[in-house]
Write a structure and sequence with these properties.
Elements (H helix, E strand, L loop, with lengths): L1 E6 L4 H4 L5 H12 L3 E4 L27 H9 L6 E8 L5 H14 L4 E6 L4 H6 L7 H15 L5 E4 L4 E5 L12 E4 L4 H10 L2 E3 L5 H17 L8 E5 L12 H4 L3 H7 L3 E5 H4 L6 H15 L1
Parallel strand pairs: 1-2, 1-10, 2-3, 3-4, 4-7, 7-8, 8-9, 9-10
Antiparallel strand pairs: 5-6
Length: about 300
Protein backbone atom coordinates (compact mmCIF):
# COMPACT_ATOMS: atom_id res chain seq x y z
CA UNK A 1 0.00 0.00 0.00
CA UNK A 2 1.29 3.44 -0.97
CA UNK A 3 0.36 6.89 0.31
CA UNK A 4 -0.42 10.01 -1.68
CA UNK A 5 -1.28 13.55 -0.67
CA UNK A 6 -3.86 15.29 -2.84
CA UNK A 7 -4.12 19.04 -3.35
CA UNK A 8 -7.44 20.55 -4.36
CA UNK A 9 -8.99 23.96 -3.69
CA UNK A 10 -8.91 23.33 0.06
CA UNK A 11 -5.23 24.32 -0.18
CA UNK A 12 -6.71 27.80 0.35
CA UNK A 13 -7.39 26.91 4.00
CA UNK A 14 -3.66 26.63 4.61
CA UNK A 15 -1.83 28.95 2.24
CA UNK A 16 -4.46 31.04 0.45
CA UNK A 17 -3.32 32.10 -3.02
CA UNK A 18 0.38 31.64 -2.25
CA UNK A 19 1.20 28.88 -4.73
CA UNK A 20 4.93 29.17 -4.01
CA UNK A 21 4.14 27.01 -0.97
CA UNK A 22 3.33 24.13 -3.33
CA UNK A 23 7.07 23.68 -3.72
CA UNK A 24 7.46 23.51 0.07
CA UNK A 25 4.76 20.83 0.20
CA UNK A 26 6.62 18.90 -2.50
CA UNK A 27 9.89 19.06 -0.58
CA UNK A 28 8.22 18.05 2.68
CA UNK A 29 6.38 15.13 1.03
CA UNK A 30 9.59 13.84 -0.52
CA UNK A 31 11.53 14.16 2.73
CA UNK A 32 8.77 12.27 4.54
CA UNK A 33 8.83 9.39 2.06
CA UNK A 34 5.33 10.08 0.72
CA UNK A 35 4.94 8.08 -2.49
CA UNK A 36 2.96 10.53 -4.60
CA UNK A 37 1.68 14.09 -4.70
CA UNK A 38 -1.51 14.65 -6.72
CA UNK A 39 -3.08 17.90 -7.88
CA UNK A 40 -6.71 18.02 -8.98
CA UNK A 41 -8.30 20.71 -11.10
CA UNK A 42 -11.21 22.81 -12.10
CA UNK A 43 -10.61 25.26 -14.90
CA UNK A 44 -13.34 27.49 -13.48
CA UNK A 45 -16.37 27.16 -11.23
CA UNK A 46 -20.03 27.61 -12.02
CA UNK A 47 -22.76 27.67 -9.38
CA UNK A 48 -21.94 24.15 -8.13
CA UNK A 49 -25.53 22.97 -8.43
CA UNK A 50 -24.68 20.09 -10.78
CA UNK A 51 -22.17 18.55 -8.34
CA UNK A 52 -22.98 14.82 -8.48
CA UNK A 53 -22.27 14.02 -4.80
CA UNK A 54 -24.70 16.39 -3.09
CA UNK A 55 -23.87 19.87 -1.88
CA UNK A 56 -20.55 21.18 -3.19
CA UNK A 57 -18.19 20.83 -0.19
CA UNK A 58 -15.98 23.92 -0.54
CA UNK A 59 -16.30 27.64 -1.26
CA UNK A 60 -16.74 28.20 -4.98
CA UNK A 61 -14.19 31.03 -4.96
CA UNK A 62 -11.35 28.90 -3.57
CA UNK A 63 -8.34 28.91 -5.92
CA UNK A 64 -7.45 25.89 -8.07
CA UNK A 65 -3.87 25.75 -9.41
CA UNK A 66 -3.43 24.50 -12.96
CA UNK A 67 -2.02 21.00 -12.37
CA UNK A 68 0.53 20.69 -15.18
CA UNK A 69 2.17 24.03 -14.40
CA UNK A 70 2.07 23.38 -10.65
CA UNK A 71 3.57 19.90 -10.97
CA UNK A 72 6.36 21.23 -13.18
CA UNK A 73 7.30 23.64 -10.40
CA UNK A 74 7.27 20.83 -7.84
CA UNK A 75 9.27 18.56 -10.16
CA UNK A 76 12.02 21.19 -10.27
CA UNK A 77 12.59 20.99 -6.49
CA UNK A 78 12.17 17.22 -5.97
CA UNK A 79 13.86 14.04 -7.16
CA UNK A 80 11.88 10.97 -6.10
CA UNK A 81 8.25 11.68 -5.15
CA UNK A 82 5.86 10.73 -7.95
CA UNK A 83 3.66 13.47 -9.36
CA UNK A 84 0.07 12.97 -10.41
CA UNK A 85 -2.76 14.87 -12.01
CA UNK A 86 -5.51 13.79 -9.72
CA UNK A 87 -7.55 14.27 -11.84
CA UNK A 88 -7.15 16.38 -14.98
CA UNK A 89 -10.23 17.24 -17.07
CA UNK A 90 -8.64 15.99 -20.27
CA UNK A 91 -11.34 16.90 -22.84
CA UNK A 92 -10.92 20.62 -22.09
CA UNK A 93 -7.48 20.65 -23.75
CA UNK A 94 -6.58 20.19 -27.42
CA UNK A 95 -5.15 16.65 -27.65
CA UNK A 96 -1.90 17.64 -29.38
CA UNK A 97 -1.24 20.33 -26.77
CA UNK A 98 -2.03 17.94 -23.92
CA UNK A 99 0.30 15.30 -25.37
CA UNK A 100 3.09 17.87 -25.57
CA UNK A 101 2.49 19.21 -22.05
CA UNK A 102 2.43 15.79 -20.42
CA UNK A 103 5.46 14.50 -22.33
CA UNK A 104 7.37 17.62 -21.32
CA UNK A 105 6.35 17.22 -17.67
CA UNK A 106 7.45 13.59 -17.69
CA UNK A 107 10.82 14.75 -19.07
CA UNK A 108 11.17 17.52 -16.47
CA UNK A 109 10.38 15.05 -13.68
CA UNK A 110 12.59 12.31 -15.18
CA UNK A 111 9.77 9.82 -15.49
CA UNK A 112 7.78 10.51 -12.31
CA UNK A 113 4.41 11.43 -13.83
CA UNK A 114 1.13 9.58 -13.27
CA UNK A 115 -1.75 10.95 -15.34
CA UNK A 116 -5.17 10.99 -13.71
CA UNK A 117 -7.95 11.81 -16.18
CA UNK A 118 -11.68 12.35 -16.05
CA UNK A 119 -14.39 14.00 -18.12
CA UNK A 120 -15.65 16.22 -15.32
CA UNK A 121 -19.17 17.21 -14.34
CA UNK A 122 -19.42 20.97 -14.90
CA UNK A 123 -21.20 22.06 -18.06
CA UNK A 124 -19.88 25.61 -17.50
CA UNK A 125 -16.28 24.52 -18.03
CA UNK A 126 -17.13 23.05 -21.42
CA UNK A 127 -19.18 26.07 -22.43
CA UNK A 128 -16.24 28.34 -21.60
CA UNK A 129 -14.00 26.25 -23.89
CA UNK A 130 -16.59 26.06 -26.69
CA UNK A 131 -16.70 22.26 -26.40
CA UNK A 132 -20.04 20.40 -26.43
CA UNK A 133 -20.66 18.95 -22.97
CA UNK A 134 -22.40 15.93 -24.51
CA UNK A 135 -19.18 14.99 -26.35
CA UNK A 136 -17.00 14.86 -23.24
CA UNK A 137 -16.63 11.08 -22.99
CA UNK A 138 -16.02 10.58 -26.71
CA UNK A 139 -13.57 13.46 -26.68
CA UNK A 140 -11.74 11.98 -23.69
CA UNK A 141 -11.35 8.61 -25.43
CA UNK A 142 -10.17 10.27 -28.64
CA UNK A 143 -7.74 12.45 -26.68
CA UNK A 144 -6.15 9.44 -25.02
CA UNK A 145 -5.88 7.57 -28.32
CA UNK A 146 -4.25 10.59 -29.95
CA UNK A 147 -1.85 11.15 -27.04
CA UNK A 148 -0.82 7.49 -26.99
CA UNK A 149 -0.07 7.65 -30.71
CA UNK A 150 1.86 10.93 -30.47
CA UNK A 151 3.94 9.64 -27.55
CA UNK A 152 5.44 6.88 -29.73
CA UNK A 153 7.70 9.37 -31.49
CA UNK A 154 6.49 8.09 -34.86
CA UNK A 155 4.55 10.04 -37.45
CA UNK A 156 0.83 9.76 -36.82
CA UNK A 157 -2.14 9.79 -39.16
CA UNK A 158 -5.35 9.28 -37.26
CA UNK A 159 -8.98 10.17 -37.91
CA UNK A 160 -11.23 9.90 -34.87
CA UNK A 161 -14.71 11.32 -34.20
CA UNK A 162 -13.33 14.44 -32.47
CA UNK A 163 -9.61 14.44 -33.40
CA UNK A 164 -7.78 14.35 -36.73
CA UNK A 165 -4.00 14.03 -37.11
CA UNK A 166 -2.40 14.01 -40.56
CA UNK A 167 1.19 12.77 -40.82
CA UNK A 168 2.38 14.63 -37.71
CA UNK A 169 5.26 14.07 -35.31
CA UNK A 170 5.47 15.09 -31.63
CA UNK A 171 8.84 15.31 -29.88
CA UNK A 172 9.92 14.98 -27.10
CA UNK A 173 8.39 11.69 -26.15
CA UNK A 174 7.85 10.85 -22.47
CA UNK A 175 10.50 9.08 -20.40
CA UNK A 176 7.98 6.39 -19.41
CA UNK A 177 6.58 4.07 -22.04
CA UNK A 178 3.72 3.91 -21.57
CA UNK A 179 2.87 6.88 -19.42
CA UNK A 180 0.64 5.55 -16.60
CA UNK A 181 -2.97 6.67 -16.96
CA UNK A 182 -5.45 6.53 -14.09
CA UNK A 183 -9.14 7.17 -14.72
CA UNK A 184 -11.58 8.85 -12.42
CA UNK A 185 -15.17 7.79 -12.72
CA UNK A 186 -18.01 5.78 -11.27
CA UNK A 187 -17.75 1.97 -11.32
CA UNK A 188 -19.73 1.48 -14.53
CA UNK A 189 -19.12 -0.97 -17.39
CA UNK A 190 -18.02 1.97 -19.56
CA UNK A 191 -15.43 3.04 -16.98
CA UNK A 192 -14.20 -0.54 -16.64
CA UNK A 193 -13.78 -0.93 -20.40
CA UNK A 194 -12.03 2.43 -20.67
CA UNK A 195 -9.50 1.54 -17.97
CA UNK A 196 -8.92 -1.92 -19.42
CA UNK A 197 -8.25 -0.48 -22.88
CA UNK A 198 -6.17 2.56 -22.01
CA UNK A 199 -5.25 2.67 -18.33
CA UNK A 200 -3.25 1.35 -15.45
CA UNK A 201 -5.35 2.66 -12.58
CA UNK A 202 -8.69 3.81 -11.19
CA UNK A 203 -9.41 6.82 -8.96
CA UNK A 204 -12.90 6.35 -7.46
CA UNK A 205 -14.49 9.12 -5.44
CA UNK A 206 -16.53 8.85 -2.24
CA UNK A 207 -17.41 5.17 -2.62
CA UNK A 208 -18.30 2.93 0.33
CA UNK A 209 -16.15 -0.16 0.61
CA UNK A 210 -18.73 -2.57 -0.81
CA UNK A 211 -19.18 -0.45 -3.95
CA UNK A 212 -15.42 -0.02 -4.18
CA UNK A 213 -14.90 -3.79 -4.06
CA UNK A 214 -17.58 -4.33 -6.70
CA UNK A 215 -15.95 -1.73 -8.95
CA UNK A 216 -12.53 -3.33 -8.60
CA UNK A 217 -14.02 -6.72 -9.48
CA UNK A 218 -15.78 -5.24 -12.52
CA UNK A 219 -12.58 -3.63 -13.81
CA UNK A 220 -10.69 -6.85 -13.11
CA UNK A 221 -13.13 -8.73 -15.34
CA UNK A 222 -12.57 -6.17 -18.10
CA UNK A 223 -8.80 -6.61 -17.69
CA UNK A 224 -9.11 -10.39 -17.98
CA UNK A 225 -11.29 -10.09 -21.09
CA UNK A 226 -8.47 -8.17 -22.77
CA UNK A 227 -5.82 -10.64 -21.66
CA UNK A 228 -4.50 -8.36 -18.93
CA UNK A 229 -3.73 -9.54 -15.40
CA UNK A 230 -6.35 -8.10 -13.01
CA UNK A 231 -3.70 -8.07 -10.27
CA UNK A 232 -1.89 -5.28 -12.13
CA UNK A 233 -4.78 -2.83 -11.65
CA UNK A 234 -3.82 0.15 -9.48
CA UNK A 235 -6.50 1.77 -7.32
CA UNK A 236 -6.22 5.01 -5.34
CA UNK A 237 -8.81 5.58 -2.61
CA UNK A 238 -9.40 8.77 -0.64
CA UNK A 239 -9.32 8.42 3.15
CA UNK A 240 -11.41 10.63 5.41
CA UNK A 241 -9.31 12.48 7.96
CA UNK A 242 -10.02 11.81 11.64
CA UNK A 243 -8.91 14.30 14.30
CA UNK A 244 -7.96 14.11 17.96
CA UNK A 245 -9.26 16.35 20.74
CA UNK A 246 -6.63 18.98 19.88
CA UNK A 247 -7.74 19.21 16.25
CA UNK A 248 -4.72 17.38 14.88
CA UNK A 249 -4.79 14.43 12.50
CA UNK A 250 -5.31 11.12 14.29
CA UNK A 251 -3.23 8.80 12.14
CA UNK A 252 -4.32 5.48 13.64
CA UNK A 253 -8.00 6.35 13.23
CA UNK A 254 -7.53 7.83 9.76
CA UNK A 255 -5.64 4.80 8.47
CA UNK A 256 -7.85 2.23 10.24
CA UNK A 257 -9.52 1.12 6.95
CA UNK A 258 -6.20 0.32 5.26
CA UNK A 259 -6.14 -3.39 6.10
CA UNK A 260 -9.64 -3.90 4.66
CA UNK A 261 -8.85 -1.75 1.64
CA UNK A 262 -5.74 -3.81 0.91
CA UNK A 263 -7.78 -7.01 0.91
CA UNK A 264 -10.23 -5.70 -1.70
CA UNK A 265 -7.49 -4.48 -4.05
CA UNK A 266 -6.73 -0.84 -3.20
CA UNK A 267 -3.04 -0.10 -3.85
CA UNK A 268 -2.78 3.54 -2.74
CA UNK A 269 -4.58 5.64 -0.14
CA UNK A 270 -4.75 9.41 -0.39
CA UNK A 271 -5.23 12.23 2.09
CA UNK A 272 -6.43 15.67 1.06
CA UNK A 273 -3.91 18.25 2.27
CA UNK A 274 -6.35 20.93 3.39
CA UNK A 275 -8.93 18.43 4.66
CA UNK A 276 -6.33 16.71 6.87
CA UNK A 277 -4.50 19.68 8.39
CA UNK A 278 -6.23 22.59 10.07
CA UNK A 279 -3.29 24.79 11.08
CA UNK A 280 -0.76 26.05 8.50
CA UNK A 281 1.93 25.80 11.17
CA UNK A 282 1.34 22.02 11.35
CA UNK A 283 1.74 21.20 7.66
CA UNK A 284 5.39 20.12 7.58
CA UNK A 285 5.18 18.15 10.84
CA UNK A 286 1.94 16.44 9.84
CA UNK A 287 3.30 15.38 6.45
CA UNK A 288 6.37 13.99 8.24
CA UNK A 289 4.12 12.10 10.67
CA UNK A 290 2.08 10.63 7.80
CA UNK A 291 5.27 9.39 6.17
CA UNK A 292 6.56 7.92 9.43
CA UNK A 293 3.25 6.14 10.04
CA UNK A 294 3.40 4.65 6.56
CA UNK A 295 6.97 3.41 6.98
CA UNK A 296 6.06 1.73 10.26
CA UNK A 297 2.74 0.16 9.31
CA UNK A 298 2.55 -0.31 5.52
Amino acid sequence: MKISITITSEYNRLFGHDFTRLMDVGRWAEAAGIDQLDIAEHLLMGDGKSYPFGEYPAPLDDPWPEPIAALAAIAAVTQTVRLGTGVLIAPLRPPALLAKQLATLDRISNGRLDIGLAAGWQREEYQACAIPFAQRNQRMDDTVRACRALWTGERVTQKLPTVELDNVLAVPTPVQAPLPIWYGGSPTPATAQRIAEFGQGWVPLFLPEDALAAGIALIGEAFAARGRDPATLQVRHQLFAQFDANGRLNLDATFAPVERLTRIGVTMVSLGLGWSIRDPADVEATIAAIGAWGRKHL
